[in-house]
Hints:
By secondary structure, this protein is an all-alpha fold. It folds into three domains: 15-111 and 122-176, no CATH class; 248-316, Alpha Horseshoe (Serine Threonine Protein Phosphatase 5, Tetratricopeptide repeat); 325-405, Serine Threonine Protein Phosphatase 5, Tetratricopeptide repeat (Alpha Horseshoe). It contains 20 helices and no strands. Helix 18 runs antiparallel to helix 19. The radius of gyration is 33 Å and the shape is elongated.
Amino acid sequence: MKKVTVLCLGLMATMAAGAQVQLVKDAERAMKSGESAAKVAEIIKPAASNPETANDVQVYFIPGKAAFDEYDKLLGLKQFNKLPENGQTAMGQDLINGYTFFMQALPLDSVPDAKGKVKAKHSKDMINALAGHFWDYNGAAVDMWSAQDYKGAYEAWNIFMTLPKNPAVAPKIMNLPADSIMGEISFNRGLAAWQCERLDDALASFEEAKRLGYGKKQLYDYAMGVAKLKNDSETALAWAREAQPLFGHEDAAYTGEIINSYITRQDYDGAVAEIQKALQAEPNNSQYYWILGVIYQSKEDLANAKEAYAKALSINDKNAKALTAYGWILAKEAGDAADAMPATATEADYEKKIYPLYREAATYLERALEINDEDIDTLRTLENVYYNLKDNANTERIATLIKTL
C-alpha cells in the first residue's frame, strides 16, 4: 500500500509540474495571438510561484514581451489620435511592467546549463527592448504626472534614471542624456515621490539631482519641505545651510531655518552671531532685521526686539512679518501698562496712558493685514487689541475673519 501511495504522489507532482509548463505554453500562445498584456500576465502568474517553473526565464520573458508589444501597439494608435480611454496611463504601466518582468528574466537567461555553458536565449532581445524604449520612460512619466498618477510617474522616472547605470543596457542606449538633463529629471522624480508620500525616496532623488548639477532654488525649497514633513530637522538644516549662500539674498527662509536651529537649542548668542554675519553681507535686508527681532523676543529682550523690528520697517515698510511683530510689541507694552494701573484708575487715565498704545498697535497690525489677510498671528493679536479698546465692531470683524480660515 505504501508503494502505491508513493507512486501516486509522484504522479501527482509530475502532473502538477506539467500543468505549470502548460501555463507557460498557454501564456506564450496568448502573447503571440495578441491578447492583452494583463491577460498574458494573469495566465502565467501561477507559474512564477511554483518551484518547478519559478526559475524558468520564459515565466518572466513572456509577460515582459507582451507588455512592450502592447506599448508599441498603443504608441502607433497614439500617433493617429486613436488611443482608447486611459490609453496614456496604460502605456506607462506597460513600460513599467515590461521593465519589471525583464529585470526578473535577465538573470535567469544567463544561468549555466549542466555542462557549465551559458546560453542566453532572450537577453539580447530584452536588452534591446529596454534600451530602445529608454526615452519613452520619460515621456510616460510626464503623461502619468499629468494624469495625477504620481506613483506611476515616480516608477517611470526611476527606471529612466536606473537604465543608464545598467552595464548591459547602457551601451545600447542611443543619445544618453547629459548630467544636467538627468539632474532635472531626478528632481522631477523627487516631486513625484513626494506626491505619493515616499519621502525617503524624494530626498534621495533630490540629493542625486544636486550631485548631477541641478542647482535651482526650488530644489532646496522642496528638499527642506520634505525633510520637515519627515520631522528631520537635521536634514532640513543641512539643505538650508547649503542654500543660504546661494539664495539667501532673495529669500530669508534659509537664514531663518538656521537661526531657528539655534533658538530651538536656546543658543541665543549663536543665533545673534549668525544673523549678524548675514547682516554684514546684506546690511539693508529687512527680513534679517525681523529675524534678529525674533531672536531677541525669544530671549524676552523686548527692547532690542522692538528696535530690530523698527529697523526692519525703516528698510521696508511693507514687511508684513515685521509689522505684525512690532504691533505685538506695542500691544504687549499696552497690556503691561494696563496691568500696572492702580485699581482707582479712571477711564480718562486709560485714555491717556493705555489706549494710545493699543491704537498704535492696531495701525501696524491693520497694515500687516492689508498685505496678508490670512495670517493667524496678526488676526489674533488684532482681535485682542480691539477687545481691549472696547471696539466691538472691529472685534467682531476680526473674529469673523478668523472663523473663515
